[in-house]
Each structure stands twice: as structure tokens, then as C-alpha cells.
Design goal:
Elements: H1 2-31, H2 39-57, H3 60-84, H4 89-111, H5 136-141, H6 145-160, H7 166-176, H8 178-183, H9 188-215, H10 226-236, H11 241-260, H12 270-286
Helix pairs in contact: 1-6, 1-9, 1-10, 1-11, 2-3, 2-4, 2-9, 2-10, 3-4, 3-9, 6-9, 10-11, 10-12, 11-12
Amino acid sequence: MSAVLEEVLSGGVRLAAPLLLASAGELVSERAGVLNLSVEAMMLTGAFAGAAGALATGSAVAGVGCALVAGLLVAALQALLSVTVRADQIVTGITANALALGATTYGARLLFADSGQTPAGFEPLPVPVLSEIPLLGPALFEQSVLGYLAFAVAAVLAVGLSRRTGWGLAVDAVGEDAVTADRCGLPVRAIRYAAVLLTGVTSGLAGAQLALAEVHAFSDNITGGVGYLAVVAVIAGRWRAWPTVLACLFFGVAQALQFAAPAVGLHLPAPLLVTVPYVIALLAVSGLVGRSRAPSALTTPFLRTA
């Protein structure tokens, strides 16, 4: 039983790592007032570019660089449409996801279908002594470099978003009332651009983590909706940093249960476990599990008034 529990925890933390990266950036973006449904597109293009770059150069680090560039390009397009053009954020996000799915699927047919090669990737790096702690040791301290980076990025952004920091206050001010923030001298568009581009960085890294640390390959729709799940984690976490981290870990464990449940005689329907995160998000926004309020200016384009 303990072996199964250890497997569930280890698998859950590994599955939560890309979700943590993507949701960390998404949290900043939503707190700044921009709903980034295109997180899925950023992750998918990041995974594809990461695998392609690692395969072409033989270097996993180069693959991560390619993933970052791909994520930033999608984020730049999203920022242009959402902040400058003031297009509908939901429509642009869904459109970007559809385009990314089609483009990466076609690209995978061209680059990976007949190559028979595996891109360079990252192997787990156990931390001496700590990785030997029962249950939690293998789960927390046998990660790849990108896995450790995911937790570091989540922690840094959680501290940075605190209202005790000037940056956190500025982001919240823009997300709550952009017009008033502008009158107080805050560069609203610049802050929103930075928030969306940050999402591109974290989501590109999340895609690289999937392709280069978990799967060591690229396959069609490798993200499998993790980008959407990142948005759900932010909602379930009530737009707060540490609850969002906990939501990501919970979702990771819920996904790991799909593979480990039969080993302990629990034959739970896989679709039931898949729906758990979305049910939790619905409960979070419904107020049944406590009060929850999204940033007031979320999805509202900023237009400077006289």
C-alpha cells in the first residue's frame, strides 16, 4: 500500500510541475486583467519547438530556449490582440489554441513521423539524503531540472504577487480598476503586456517540461488540455497564489490516480477523475466553498478616457 501511495504522490508531483508553471503565469495575467485562454497554445508550441530544437541541436538546453521563444511569440500575439487591439479575450484565446493544435500536428508529421530519433531531454536528479525520505522524498526530490524550476518559479511569483511588494500592488491595481490606475500614473498597457509575456515564458517552459522531461518526445496534442487546466487551477485557487499551487498539486494527484487506482482495487472511471478539477472550479466560483471574487477588470479592455 505504501508503495502505491508513493507512486501516486510521485506521479502527482510530476504531473503538477507543468501545470504549476503554466498557472503561475496565468495567475499574474488574470490578476492584471487579461484572461489568457491561449495558455494551451503557448504550451503546445513550446513543447513542439522544444522537441524540434533539442532534436536538431542534440541539446536539451537549446530545446528549452526554442520553447521559450515559441511561447513568447504566441504571448506577444495574444498581448497585441488583447491589450492593443482590444479584441475579445475568450475568442482570441480559443482561436490561438485551435491554430496551435493544427500547426504543431502538421509540423510533427513533417519532423518527427519518420525520423525515429528521440530528442535530448532531462533526466531526474535525486537530491542526496532528501530523496530517501519515505513517501515525500521521491515525490519532491527526484525531479528533473525543469521540475525543480517549476516549483521555484511558482514560489517566486507567489511572493512577488503579494500586496507587500510594489509589483504585486501594481498588478492588482491594473486588474481591479485600470482607469483609476492609469490616472494614478501606472503604465496599464505596459503592465498588461508584461503579464501576458510572462505567461508565455512560463507556459513555454511548461511545454518543454512535458516534451523534454516527461515524455522525451513530441506527439499530437501532447498537452491534452493542461493549458485549460491551468486556467481552472487559477479559478479554483480563487486568484490567490498559494491556493493555486495547492490546486495544481491536487489536480496532479487526481491525474496520477487514473493510473494507480487499479493497483489497489479501485476501478474508478477515468472520465470521473478527469472531471474532478472542473467540478472544484465550479464550486470555487459558485461560493459554495467560501467567497471568491475574480479581479474586477478581468477580460475588460483598457481604454484611456479624457
